[in-house]
Amino acid sequence: MQLSHYLWNEDLKEMLESNKESLKLEAMKRIVGLIAKGKNASELFPAVVKNVANKNIELKKLVYVYLVRYAEEQQDLALLSISTFQRALKDPNQFIRASALRVLSSIRVPIIVPIMMVAIKEAAADLSPYVRKTSAHAIQKLYSLDPDQKEQLIEVIEKLLKDKSTLVAGSVVMAFEDVCPDRIDLIHKNYRKLCNLLVDVEEWGQVVIISMLTRYARTQFVSPWKEGAMFDENNDKAFYESDSEEKKDPTEDKPYIMDPDHRLLLRNTKPLLQSRNTAVVMSVAQLYWHLAPKHEVSAVTKSLVRLLRSHREVQYIVLQNIATMSIQRKGMFEPSMKSFYVRSTDATHIKTLKLEILTNLANEANISTILREFQTYVKSQDKAFAAATIQAIGRCATNISEVADTCLNGLVLLLSNRDETVVAESVVVIKKLLQTQPTQHSEIIKHMAKLFDNITVPMARASILWLMGEYCEKVPKIAPDVLRKMAKSFTVEEDIVKLQIVNLAAKLYLTNSKQTKLLTQYILNLGKYDQNYDIRDRTRFIRQLIVPSEKSGALNKYARRILLAPKPAPLLESAFKDRDRYQLGTLSHSLNTKASGYQELPDWPAVAPDQSVRNVEIIEPVKEWAPSLGKAKKPKSGDKFYSDEEDEKEEEGSDSSGSEDSSSSSSSGSSEESGSESEEESSGTSEKTSSDSGKSSTGSEGSSSDSVQNKKKKKTKKVVKKKSKPAAADSDSDENGNGPVASSSSSSAESSSGSETDSEGDSDSDSPAAQKKKNNVKSKPKVEVKSKKEVSLLDLDDFSPAPQSNTPKSAVLSSSLLSDLEGLSLSNVSPTIQVTTPSFGPMKTHELLHHMTGKGLSAKYHFPRQPCLYQPSMVGVQVILTNSSDHTLEEIHVGERNPASLNIHCFNTIERLEPEASVTVSMGIDFSDSTQAANFQLCTKEDGFSVSIQPAVGELLMPSTMTEQDFSKEQGKLLGMNEISETITMATANTSSQAISKQVLSVANLGVVSSSQSNFHRFAGRTVSSGDLVLVSLEVKESCSALLTINTEKSVMASMLLRDLKQALAQA
Amino acid sequence: MSTKRNFIDLQRHLKDRTRGAFSAAHTLLPYWHRVTHQWQLESAAEMIHSLFLINHTGDIFLEKHWKSVISRGVCDYFLEVKEKAVEPENVPPVLQTPHHYLISIYRDKLFFLSVIQTEVPPLFVIEFLHRVADTFQDYFGECSESIIKDNVVTVYELLEEMLDNGFPLATESNILKEMIKPPTILRSVVNTLTVLLFFPGSSNVGDKLPTGQLSNIPWRRAAVKYTNNEAYFDVIEEIDAILDKSGMTVFAEIQGVIEACTRLSGMPDLTLSFMNPRLLDDVSFHPCVRFKRWESERVLSFIPPDGNFTLMTYHVSSQNLVAIPVYVKQNISFFETGSCGRLDITIGPKQTMGKMVEGLMVTVHMPKAVLSVNLTASQGNYTYDLATKVLVWDIGKLNPQKPPNLRGTLSVQSGAPRPEENPALDIKLKIQQLAISGLKVNRLDMYGEKYKPFKGVKYMTKAGKFQVRT
């Protein structure tokens, strides 16, 4: 055996050292097989570790498996592999960086702690969210390896918590929970972001985040369970009305107003009840249980009951939790009572739990149904379960006095059951019941006395004896006779029975000493010499107590009062009675003991801590990790957005709001709105949607979105008009996405996504009316247009009608789809360098088709600067089609294209376009990184018009973010003919860094690279089609001259871009 | 070569659990010791520490540790409980040992036992373990001891990807399949080829790595291409019911699931709508479904994963009366005198909506005292397993003209008391082309891609937990 083992290893070593990959692979596979079986393969370490740098991925993976398993034992040798990982940490491929970090951090060798620390810090700042996720995992590994690193690790956690990627969120919260769960202060600033991202986080992360947020909410909000929580609904509305945090309802008589952040959490977790992941559903359920106002908790019932269809193990945990919940809140589960009916095929522990719940749910109304059900269970072949049922009947009897007699009679009937355990259990339960209501039950006691000879279960015998003794005065004839029988069999009884015999004897001696004196003495004598010391002790004690003698003076007098004192009836309680001390859904709850690492759920604070800690302040443009452009653009944003999108008539409003309100963050008006306009509200939602999304997507720009809100308020009426066309919501939010309001326009779906879906959710859930309209509208565009007109007629007094004013609407799905999709997106990343935020999208609209040439059909287009969802290589184009003629245009679609190979994603055919109506549709065009125009035909039912879209070179780019170092590194790779530069003269107005950014971004869809030098400005992007890097750097020399450098492989684009930039910067 | 194989066999047959654990523990004692110490100090860290796969006889045939090694000895607590349990199903899923917590699931006659060190939501672990089992099922077609042993390397690679430091990493089948190819006959050939083609230089490794994990839609593989584009949806409804002795419905409800199989190129965006969505009471979705659209419009809008997946599950609102497709007349009785009993079961059609009832099967768990049965079936066959006391009557198609009947005598162990309770009957049945709730798919539309896919919807009704008390 030993020999073959040795040979075996030799063989493997040989294979590992061979030159053939296949042999090595084969060897590694066998070794993994050994590890899996738990065999020791540590001797092969030197041979295996040599292959760590092998190029073959599969082999490499297997080596990693081995390394992680044995590195701890072979620390010195393991160190040989470290340099390989260090090198891989710098690899351009994010997956390689991530996997290197994964393995490196899994090697539990204390000596490499510093290396791990450095690697984690670097990875935490990596551009790839996947690598950052890995670094969050590594934090925990390092922490368990060396807890002394805690402080440094907390810093990394703090940084990662700010991350806006859904990929990272779950993992970093996990690390937070592990390393510093008490540092709740780190969460404040990220609270809203986490709430908003939640829906899009992967399911495992959701569980962790939800449980952390439960704890957070318990420390930060006041209890919603007090009187007056009814007003909550009201407040709820107010919250939807506007997103501003500070808003308070002016009417102070309301005793409780839920913190909007509290509401936010409840609202954003609710959809997750529909998750397929049972752990997610359970965690939302526990969140509602611990945080929601009482009347809202029942929202989780259906979902929990649904989980009962899942695997046996899931049922077990869910039933446990329902059992705890059903004690406090019968009403929650009563409607689904039948779901807890037991099937004979259920496992025993499932049956018992269901029984427990049924018992908890029993009340006057349903008790007869439940008892009928119980009758079936008592007959179960599963005797443990039958016994549990009897206990349950006993509990029902004590809890519901109406049925006490019925239950008792039923139990007495069971006494004649053939099964011993059933009888025994019945006796025990009857005993308890009789204690609670000892009046005229002598019949039952007599009956039991008669059965006594047939009952052999000790506990049951003991119970009967106790009953005899306790109520001996009610059965004066029978009790002494029973004692007589027991005296005979005393020696063969079980201990527990013997104790009760002694008890019975003592009680009878006190009440009926004439008949029982001798018997008692006999029994006491037997007890005195019993083998069990408990019995000997008890006997001695009783003798002293009841038999008067010289020594025992004082106590003797009280013997009667001691032994025959009225005893409190035992409470028949649920085993889950006090489980609620543990947070639901936890391991501790399941085990009913405190598991290690369990964190108590704090009680609500009496007074809520400062709410403003959760406000996210504006972050300065330069230092932002994913740079946003800060204040400069805000005033502009207001203008831009509205002037372009809507019409002149709206400009007044936007102007004023843009300038005045941009920085005012609190809007007192919003709450009025909430209260008063229930009708408007529904319509207002879609608008709000956009403001919501704008806000959260930037994450930092509270004020800009506020301005939008304020403004919205001003335009309430107009909004109403718009409202009738819910489709507007979609296009609105889109544009908002692109427009300057949301700095995140095109690329960083990760941040905008969560919020957008979310805000859509609001509108959906709030305003069923609006939804319905929306539905109608979608299905029948015709009707919609009409209704719009009607409404606008009502409101027209104030505004001059403008033909295309009324919000472009999409009659087809495409644009709503777009926003939907963004909701889905996880994180939008290009292979190595993340494509991100800020485009300062100047929404230049270009004419596509004039209404004169188009026989009434006019079209305009602009580049929304959002990643095209149809194909990543396409540039998204939004086309606004307007019918300026006096007749309905039908079947508007894209016809032939030129060149024929042109790759266009067309919009769906628009069946009808009413006069005066307009729609916005999205298209995707693959320009192949050239500014050659895309020519195609725009057709109606009757005609076709040749049109062409010519992109500016700047629109063919997608912004990327990167650090300054990466920028320099990449720039270093793109020298020589890939670099062009020119000294340019700038207009004086453009010398400030904000102005430069603004101008550059208006020309090209680039991302700002934060810069440490104030005279250096860097911008990065990729070409949409081929993904080539385009790096723009601008070195400001003196007052007005600057060196503009563009590095890219696309030299044609570079020169065109240079020209455009030069022109833009020269202009004031 | 043969010596090696012999060696493996030897090892396998030794069943020497302690030996392996011992030698391992011995070699690594110094470090091991230190690490153990740290756990006790810190006790924090990962969610799932180790996984053991145990067969129904109690042999540990695979172990995987995501951190330090935990000795197999920890399973003894579990095995002890398992020994005591009459049925493997009765082992509680959560157990406590002095230093660890054990959370286990029982699937396909295997125990998946995970070792936990600290507080963690138990459902989190249970759900994950089931995902692991699902993944094995998905990869190997079944989830059995022999198939896991045969594919131990793939299993290990999967486990490595699914969990990082005890926290789930990649659990989507589409992503896993991009990283780890399911075993095929051609696999080994392809392997060598890929090695040659892809790894002369290191730069190409990225091609083999999962892009799906980073995409906006993590459940879908990138760059899917099919020559035949097709999307099939199976609406499967299960009737859960308890009928009492007299045939009255004690409890009945309908649970439905929509299983989908989509083989569509590119990035199709599908919309599925129902004629009568109001029927649906409680729903849960695959993550691909846009919940907002459902909330507002009651349509399912989604970009599907590639291949098979469960699109949604639903519960039909309890207001609607549930049609029970069959009636069951039964009479099972045991006589006080003479060690025998009588059994007589007839099944006939009740509310079948004019469809054929197929796959009819009745299972009876007889009381322990029943030694043997002597029955005649008017249709189909019956079997009685003497060891488990399970009577199975496989009927097949239900003939409405001539309701099948099973009758005869049961012989009971002499001297044993008359069984207290009559055994319940579990009914299985299938009805094709019918969703018993009346749910109908209205239409399926596809956006985002040009081609016309082939679309199909199939309905089926099955008996779920359908029990008749006697």
UniProtKB/TrEMBL annotation, chain A:
Residues 710-725, 771-780 have a biased composition (Basic residues). Keywords: Cytoplasmic vesicle, Golgi apparatus, Membrane, Phosphoprotein, Protein transport, Transport. Residues 655-673, 683-708, 742-756 have a biased composition (Low complexity). GO terms for cellular component: clathrin adaptor complex; cytoplasmic vesicle membrane; Golgi apparatus. Pfam families: Adaptin_N (PF01602), AP3B1_C (PF14796), AP3B1_C_2 (PF24080). GO terms for biological process: intracellular protein transport; vesicle-mediated transport. Residues 786-932 form the AP-3 complex subunit beta C-terminal domain. It is a peripheral membrane protein. Residues 629-787 are annotated as: Disordered. It comes from the Eukaryota. Belongs to the adaptor complexes large subunit family. Subunit of non-clathrin- and clathrin-associated adaptor protein complex 3 (AP-3) that plays a role in protein sorting in the late-Golgi/trans-Golgi network (TGN) and/or endosomes. The AP complexes mediate both the recruitment of clathrin to membranes and the recognition of sorting signals within the cytosolic tails of transmembrane cargo molecules. AP-3 appears to be involved in the sorting of a subset of transmembrane proteins targeted to lysosomes and lysosome-related organelles. This is AP-3 complex subunit beta. It comes from Solea senegalensis (Senegalese sole).
TrEMBL record, chain B:
One of its GO terms (cellular component) is clathrin adaptor complex. The keyword Transport applies. InterPro entries: Adaptor_comp_med_subunit (IPR050431), AP_mu_sigma_su (IPR022775), Clathrin_mu (IPR001392), Clathrin_mu_CS (IPR018240), MHD (IPR028565). It is a peripheral membrane protein. CDD domains: AP3_Mu_N. Residues 228-469 form the MHD domain. It comes from Solea senegalensis. Its main location: membrane. The keyword Cell division does not apply. It is found in: Cytoplasmic vesicle membrane; Golgi apparatus. Belongs to the adaptor complexes medium subunit family. Keywords: Cytoplasmic vesicle, Golgi apparatus, Membrane, Protein transport, Transport. This is AP-3 complex subunit mu-1. One of its GO terms (biological process) is vesicle-mediated transport.
